[in-house]
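Hypothesis: this fold can be encoded by more than one sequence.
Test: take the structure tokens below, design a sequence, compare later.
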């Protein structure tokens, strides 16, 4: 019986309960015997998705085809409803039988019979007749009405109620009339006159005594109270009936639970998530176990009850235990029904569970198939992205390496695909319901693997062929270059002898014998042989190679003709003359030293010779000199080749670091060697090195390779990619953090293992320094290339590229200094870009009251490191930690900030040409700056003038856009004195700096006096500073004689002169008059301060402390040398 039959079986059991549940077993067993059992879930739903069309593990009728539930009927009478009246013995079934096996129902003497409601009496009679009628349909009943102690009125009422309420086939009513004379007489008379009324409804026999009762019923079927021998205990009968009915109810509950569980299974929707299906399996299994436990519990109770009935049946007579036998049969049927239900349920659930497990297997296989299909498709896309051939040999070799890596990954993936295919065959061999779909997936995977393998083989063949062709072309070009160098390096002074000419001829002939075989074949032959991999770029490359071969061959033939003539004739010696002054000696480039494999000329730069040509010599027989136009091209070409080759090596080294170190940090096998604190600091250690590698490998290297034949065009490449080089600025700014992290973990076994795998002789820190070294190398190569391209049309682009790289070096250097600033509470990025930075000697004077008072500190210069931003000028103090473990990177403690909108300058100060003034807020504060050199001063003045000029232009534009302001300016002077002082430039001395010319009228004068910053002389310093930033700064640091500002902060107690509040979590407050104690200065330039008046602690920047303490700290600091004064300036201890 499948789910359909199983549900029908349970429905029938529940719907027929009004027949008495304990008698329904026989019919249910009949249904079970004739119902065909097939385990398939009717109406089991899953997501309506085409992909799952073949996945449905269940069949059966749909929801619309399910059998309708039976109509609801009245709940049948049970012992529970009539137990109260049965216990009072209103009526009972003694088990006795009368004529024709009629069932005897006894209504004994009951004083409360008349008080029983009609409905209750009807239920009692229905219950008592329902038991035999269920066992034996059409059975007759005999009622014994015992009224020996009652009256005729009671008898009459009882007979009337019986006639109205008795539901069965009443065969006979035997009435034991009252025994008293009066009531017996009244009964006889009443019955005589009313006999016809009762006889019409039911046969009634009026008996005078118990002895008359034996004429109708055998004494064995009567209980002892009627003179019979039938053993009957009313309480035992009640217990038995209650137990049987309770068991029947439990069987009904089991059927209901099975029906509910089957309905739940039928209405469950299958999910596409494996976790949901696994949870469904566990949930169904748990419910199945609970139902099994319930069935076994009911089975145990039923067997116990059946055992008791069997014992009673064996002890009684065969004639008197008829009802006991019927109860035993009922229990036997109920137990058999329960057993059949259990067996059917077990079979159904086992097959359902199997189908659900197969569905889960299919779902997992489908997910694995989709992941594998996606992986193979990605590999296929990566294979398509690899070019069949590269434009250059290096690019082709890179493609081959990429293909090698791709093939390795493809082999791993295809191995997993083979495992998946094998797993699919195992599922199909296990009679999986979706065997066709699984076999189809296996075939698809096998086809995709074959397709990928074929594509990889085809791509490898193409790349191998292209690589071979490019190597042959490179070999041919190298042979052409060697031929040109052979001609250029042959000594002309040896040609004047016949032996020298013959030796030169032999060298040329020997060289030609070593010509590559490629040059012997024609262009058409190469095109035909490598037709499958030819691209327009390769065709042009081949044609260019053969053109170059033709040119070199022509030079060789010309030289051979000349040498043959010299060998055949006696030649006059070559006359030496003084070189012409218009051809200045050119220094030989170090790039062509013997270490590059080229022979150097024995001639010194200052002893060049001019050859005297004989009459028989033509112009074509001139020696091939490297000092000519062709030699310059070769020099440029070799500088370009060095640039490209070093770029390739640089890219390869970056790739090795990224793959051999950075990527290995994610390798699980090396995880035990990697410290926990280092795992999340990969970006700190390597910075933006991946971005730098991507730029150079995919963009800049290709740009450089395209300029191999035209080196002058490399300047445009640098200018075009100028913005990309700002990646180095971020890298260099992160370099101090990276170095600090490396020093902390340099002895880590992880790095040693990676270095061992890469077979590097140097540690990781040497390779992390490569980007900084490469950045400084570019400007050197550009200078070398510019030296040989002085008369070239594109020399301006080379000059621009050189200036751009020098500016970049300067910007990187400045930014690396900027990140070392500590103690500045704001955001430095809001101040704009760093334009200049450097160390200076500074004097400060303040204007107080109506007169200007020069402080004592004016005559003691302070050493300050100045940072000129677009919107502000920062004064900082350089600090260097000393010690074995101290960080060598200098730091700068922030001291003061001047907004450029309120700054003015005085270019010349009396007494020193290297000094200039910066004054602030209308000369409220005047800073005398002494530069280390005059060039540095001029450079700073130029930059400051640019800022002030731009500010004036912006101000003028704002005034022009405001009509009201412009009218007011026509009525008043152009600018107030204070504004002119804030934004003007003066060329007078310090003492005469109160007045300044009009800022607009003097702009032209400034423009004429401006001098460009001499960037080239500092390029070497900048480069050295970048390559060794962890060492010393590029500028000297004079001794700071006063050690701090004129007011040096010393630990001790002081009284605050002004209020100060620090906004933040600690909300530290200092009020005027508070006594504060300076504890100590921390590394970030802040002091730990304790407010003794308010009993709070906080941190205050040193610059803010000077304003809080005012003259107190200044007077105190002037007396630092005197212990007595120091002690006097501090407040006494409380």
């Amino acid at each position: 019986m499948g789910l359909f039959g199983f549900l029908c079986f349970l429905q029938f059991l529940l719907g027929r309960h009004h027949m008495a549940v304990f008698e329904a077993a026989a019919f249910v067993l009949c249904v079970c015997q004739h119902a065909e059992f097939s385990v398939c879930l009717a109406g089991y739903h899953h997501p309506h998705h085409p992909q799952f069309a073949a996945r449905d593990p269940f069949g059966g009728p749909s929801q619309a085809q399910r059998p309708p539930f039976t109509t609801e009927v009245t709940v049948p009478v049970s012992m529970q409803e009539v137990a109260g009246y049965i216990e009072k013995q209103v009526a009972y079934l003694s088990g006795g039988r009368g004529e024709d096996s009629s069932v005897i129902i006894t209504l004994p003497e009951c004083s409360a019979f008349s008080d029983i409601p009609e409905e209750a009496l009807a239920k009692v009679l229905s219950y008592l007749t329902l038991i035999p009628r269920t066992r034996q349909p059409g059975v007759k009943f005999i009622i014994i009405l015992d009224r020996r102690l009652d009256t005729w009125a009671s008898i009459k009422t009882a007979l009337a109620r019986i006639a109205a309420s008795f539901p069965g086939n009443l065969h006979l009513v035997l009435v034991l009339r009252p025994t008293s004379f009066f009531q017996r007489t009244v009964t006889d008379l009443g019955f005589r006159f009313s006999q016809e009324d009762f006889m019409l409804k039911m046969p009634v026999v009026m008996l005078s005594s118990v002895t008359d009762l034996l004429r109708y019923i055998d004494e064995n079927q009567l209980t002892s109270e009627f003179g019979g021998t039938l053993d009957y205990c009313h309480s035992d009968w009640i217990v038995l009936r209650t137990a049987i009915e309770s068991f029947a109810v439990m069987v009904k509950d089991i059927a209901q639970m099975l029906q509910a569980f089957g309905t739940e299974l039928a209405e469950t929707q299958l999910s596409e998530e494996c976790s949901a299906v696994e949870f469904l399996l566990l949930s169904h299994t748990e419910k199945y176990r609970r139902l099994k436990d319930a069935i076994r519990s009911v089975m145990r109770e039923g067997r116990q009850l059946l055992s008791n009935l069997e014992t009673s049946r064996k002890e009684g007579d065969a004639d008197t235990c008829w009802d006991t036998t019927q109860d035993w049969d009922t229990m036997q049927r109920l137990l058999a029904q329960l057993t059949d239900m259990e067996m059917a349920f077990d079979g159904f659930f086992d097959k359902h569970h199997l189908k659900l497990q197969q569905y889960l297997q299919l779902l997992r296989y489908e997910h694995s198939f989709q992941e594998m299909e996606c992986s193979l498709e990605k590999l296929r896309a990566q294979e398509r992205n690899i070019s069949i051939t590269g434009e250059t040999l290096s690019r082709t070799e890179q493609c081959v390496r990429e293909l090698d890596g791709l093939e390795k990954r493809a082999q791993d993936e295809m191995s997993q695909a083979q495992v998946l295919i094998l797993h699919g065959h195992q599922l199909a061999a296990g009679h999986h319901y979706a065997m066709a779909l699984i076999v189809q997936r296996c075939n698809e995977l096998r086809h995709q693997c074959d397709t990928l393998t074929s594509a990889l083989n085809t791509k490898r063949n193409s790349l191998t062929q292209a690589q071979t062709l490019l190597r042959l072309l490179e070999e041919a070009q190298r042979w052409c270059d060697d031929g040109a160098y052979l001609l250029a390096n042959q000594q002309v002074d040896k040609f004047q002898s016949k032996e020298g000419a013959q030796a030169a001829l032999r060298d040329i002939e020997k060289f030609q014998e070593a010509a590559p075989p490629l040059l012997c074949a024609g262009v058409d032959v190469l095109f035909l042989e490598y037709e499958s991999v030819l691209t327009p770029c390769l065709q042009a490359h081949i044609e260019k190679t053969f053109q170059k071969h033709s040119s070199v061959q022509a030079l060789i033939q010309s030289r051979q003709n000349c040498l043959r003539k010299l060998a055949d004739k006696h030649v006059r010696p070559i006359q030496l003359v003084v070189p012409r002054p218009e051809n200045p000696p050119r220094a030989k480039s170090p790039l062509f030293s013997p270490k590059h494999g080229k022979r150097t000329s024995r001639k010194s730069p200052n002893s060049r010779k001019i050859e005297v040509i004989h009459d028989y010599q033509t112009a074509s027989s001139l020696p091939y000199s490297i000092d000519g136009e062709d030699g310059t091209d070769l020099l440029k070409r070799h500088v370009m080749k060095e640039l490209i080759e070093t770029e390739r090596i640089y890219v390869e080294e970056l790739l090795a670091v990224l793959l051999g170190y950075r990527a290995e940090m994610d390798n699980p096998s090396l995880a035990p060697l990697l410290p926990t604190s280092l795992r999340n600091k990969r970006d700190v250690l390597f910075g933006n090195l991946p971005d730098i590698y991507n730029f150079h490998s995919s963009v800049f290297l290709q740009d450089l390779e395209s300029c191999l034949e035209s080196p002058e065009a490399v300047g445009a490449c640098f200018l075009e990619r100028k913005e990309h080089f700002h990646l180095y600025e971020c890298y260099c700014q992160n370099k101090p953090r990276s170095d600090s992290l490396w020093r902390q973990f340099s002895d880590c076994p992880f790095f040693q293992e990676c270095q061992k795998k890469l077979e590097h002789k140097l540690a990781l820190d040497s390779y992390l320094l490569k980007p900084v070294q490469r950045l400084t190398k570019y400007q050197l190569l550009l200078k070398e290339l510019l030296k040989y391209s002085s008369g070239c049309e594109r020399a301006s682009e080379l000059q621009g590229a050189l200036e751009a790289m020098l500016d970049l070096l300067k910007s990187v250097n400045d930014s690396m200094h900027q990140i070392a600033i500590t103690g500045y509470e704001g955001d430095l990025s809001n101040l704009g870009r760093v334009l200049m930075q450097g160390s200076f000697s500074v004097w400060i004077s303040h204007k107080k009251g109506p007169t200007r008072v020069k402080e004592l500190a004016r005559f003691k210069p302070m050493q300050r490191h100045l940072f000129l931003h677009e919107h502000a000028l920062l004064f900082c103090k350089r600090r260097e930690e000393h010690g074995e473990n101290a960080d060598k990177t200098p730091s700068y403690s922030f001291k003061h900030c001047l907004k450029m909108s309120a700054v003015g300058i005085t270019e010349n100060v009396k007494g020193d040409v290297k000094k200039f003034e910066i004054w602030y807020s209308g000369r409220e504060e005047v800073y005398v700056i002494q530069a280390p050199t005059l060039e540095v001063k001029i450079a700073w003045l130029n930059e400051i003038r640019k800022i002030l000029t731009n500010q004036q232009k912006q101000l003028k534009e704002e005034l022009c856009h405001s009509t009201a302001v412009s009218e007011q300016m026509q009525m008043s002077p152009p600018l107030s004195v204070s504004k002119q002082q804030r934004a003007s430039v003066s060329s007078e001395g310090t003492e005469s700096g109160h007045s300044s010319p009009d800022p607009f009228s003097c702009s032209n004068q400034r423009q004429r006096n401006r001098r460009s910053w001499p960037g080239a002389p500092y390029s070497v310093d900048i480069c050295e500073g970048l390559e060794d930033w962890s060492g010393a700064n590029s500028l000297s640091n004079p001794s700071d004689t006063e050690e701090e500002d004129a007011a040096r902060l010393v630990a001790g107690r002081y009284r605050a002169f002004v209020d100060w509040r620090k906004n933040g979590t600690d909300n530290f407050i200092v009020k005027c008059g508070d006594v504060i104690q300076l504890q100590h200065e921390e590394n970030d330039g802040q002091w730990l301060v304790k407010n003794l008046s308010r009993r709070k602690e906080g941190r205050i920047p040193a610059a803010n402390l000077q304003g809080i303490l005012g003259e107190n700290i200044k007077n105190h600091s002037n007396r630092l040398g005197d212990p007595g004064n120091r002690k006097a300036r501090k407040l006494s201890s409380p």
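The two ends are 101 Å apart (CA to CA). The chain is about 55% helix and 10% strand.
Hypothesis status: open.
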